[in-house]
Amino acid sequence: MLKLTPAERSTLRAEAHALNPIVIVGEAGLTEPVLKEIDNGLDAHGLIKVRVFGDDREARIGMYETICDRLGAAPVQHIGKLLVVYRPKRDAVKEVRLEKKGRGMREVTIVKPSPSGTKRPSVTKVMVKGNERVTQGGSIKRAKPRQTSAKKSSLGNS
To answer: Per the count of CB atoms within 10 A, which of 49, 55, 93, 144 is most buried?
Structure first.
């Protein structure tokens, strides 16, 4: 089970206030599929709420402890039938390609002043391909191959 300081727990309680429960424990109780869903929720979000139906408070406390022990999570808050659980997100392994064969898509921000000059400028974000460029006026043009001089090409071949 993960341990939290009171300050961390307070911060997490504040963050969890706006969350909706993503897992609901029904009559069958805490089954393996429910635990797997809670585990997936913790991997995706880090901080989740779990709603437990049932009036037995001791059973809810037992479920809360079981969730935290089996999934390596920290108990944040238990109010009524809502349980708030936290576990730091696991870092996703990203493959890094060392060799780049060309330029891929990139995001470009285009800022155009308003026609009257008194209003805010319009800001648009556009995805530009590797062979495209943004002109001074904000339009997108495909890059043309560089023109070679006839004189330079004849001098280099001799």
So the answer is: 49
